[in-house]
Design a protein that fits this description.
Elements: E1 2-9, H1 16-20, E2 29-34, E3 40-44, H2 57-70, E4 78-80, H3 83-87, E5 103-105, H4 106-114, H5 119-130, H6 133-147, H7 169-182, E6 194-197, E7 205-208, E8 220-228, E9 232-241, E10 244-253, H8 256-273, E11 274-280, E12 287-292, E13 298-302, E14 307-312, E15 319-326, E16 329-330, E17 338-346, E18 349-358, H9 367-380
Parallel strand pairs: 12-16
Antiparallel strand pairs: 1-15, 2-3, 2-10, 4-5, 6-7, 8-9, 9-10, 11-14, 12-13, 13-18, 15-17, 17-18
Helix pairs in contact: 4-5, 5-6
């Protein structure tokens, strides 16, 4: 017999048009994502091609983090500074102010890139890793394809003027999501508000993080600003408020103040208009299902992946979560056996389903125990 257990009545999925029909921000293109559910809360021309400017440096850091994780690079390793890298510290660009012939550690270069937005540090790191910035850009674009950034091409490590260095705010969001998910410890660099470079042959230089949202008290912890004359101001930003993370990316802000104010407005709008609901945690039992002829009367069931849904605050009636399975389930049962489905429906319409798996083994009864069970069933019925 098919059994259905109703676990919860939660809320509607996003009715996108109604959810933000009256909301807008002053940017040419923008997107907002609820990190855990992956749902897009707001978008505006999100697939329009942009010049990502210094948001490019997120990928520069990711490539380095990948190599550190694989053991092919370490934070204490030092790279020589070429004249090519030094030149960017004296040409009016944001820089770490490294000097030709300096030996700078990977960790300091990463901090110079992430916190001080140093273009010179980008080139030094790129040349140290790949031999040339062009080769490093090939690595960046390959990583972008791996992540799913299909509308992105990286032509350099810093994002300074190059018509072939292009992306979209949706792709920058995917990259930001990947950074936070895959490198949670390294991501903490992006929240640091200042970096002091104890440079060779001069007094130490302290620079503040260029992300204006870090200085507001609403939970921002990254990610990266950008500016090009042709693109104007841009910002990939994220906040973590009581375990709830949102990621926003905007480009084409007219002024620095617009970039700060409108990005904060977008993140705040996401917090105040939507709730995040946890439906299931990965590899954690969610319910007990009935078992027939087993040494246990029930088996714990679980889902392999986290399931979160983002909920408009005013709607909590139409989303239903149910467990569907043919039960009672006959023993023996082995861990990870498919038991049924966790199903999500909205307003009676199917939305999505997930495999419901056995969390444990359940052995079958021996012949004598089976006989007793059958006799009890004949006398007392299904009790």
């Amino acid at each position: 017999m098919i059994k259905k257990k109703l676990l919860a009545i939660l809320s509607t999925f996003l009715l996108t048009v109604n959810a933000y029909a009256a909301f807008d921000i002053k940017a040419r293109t923008a997107i907002l994502q609820d990190y855990l559910s992956g749902e897009i809360l707001y978008e505006k021309e999100a697939d329009k091609s942009i010049y990502p400017a210094s948001m490019t440096k997120i990928m520069t850091a990711i490539v380095a983090f990948d190599l550190i994780r694989s053991g092919d690079l370490n934070l204490d390793e030092k790279f020589f500074v070429s004249e090519n890298a030094w030149r960017l510290s004296s040409a009016g660009y944001s820089s770490m102010f490294i000097m030709v012939g300096d030996e700078v550690s990977v960790e300091n270069l990463l901090k110079g890139i992430i916190i001080a937005s140093g273009n010179d540090a980008c080139v030094a790191l790129a040349e140290g890793i790949a031999g040339s910035e062009d080769e490093f850009a090939i690595m960046m674009t390959a990583k972008a394809r791996e992540i799913g950034m299909d509308n992105t091409n990286f032509a350099n490590s810093s994002g300074i003027n190059n018509p072939e260095n292009v992306s979209t705010v949706r792709d920058i969001m995917l990259m930001s999501n990947y950074l936070i998910k895959e490198f949670p410890e390294e991501y903490k660099y992006f929240a640091e508000k200042e970096f002091t470079w104890d440079r060779t042959g001069g007094d130490p230089i302290t620079q503040g993080n260029r992300n204006p949202l870090l200085y507001k008290s609403f939970g921002a912890d990254g990610i990266k600003t950008g500016y090009l004359a042709v693109e104007k101001y841009s910002l990939a930003s994220s906040l973590d408020r009581n375990g709830r993370r949102l990621i926003a990316v905007g480009s084409g802000f007219n002024t620095k103040n617009d970039r700060s104010r409108e990005s904060a407005k977008l993140l705040t709008w996401g917090l105040t208009n939507f709730d995040l609901i946890e439906i299931a945690k990965a590899n954690t039992p969610i319910d007990n299902l009935d078992v027939w002829l087993g040494k246990k009367d029930t088996v714990k069931a679980y889902i392999k992946n986290d399931i979160y849904k983002t909920i408009p605050k005013a709607r909590k009636k139409l989303l239903k979560v149910s467990l569907n399975y043919n039960g009672p389930i006959q023993a023996p049962i082995k861990k990870d056996d498919l038991l049924g489905k966790l199903q999500l429906t909205y307003n009676g319409n199917f939305i999505k389903e997930y495999d419901l798996l056995a969390y444990e083994d359940v052995k079958k009864l021996n012949i004598f125990s089976k006989l007793i069970k059958f006799i009890n069933f004949l006398i007392w019925g299904d009790v």
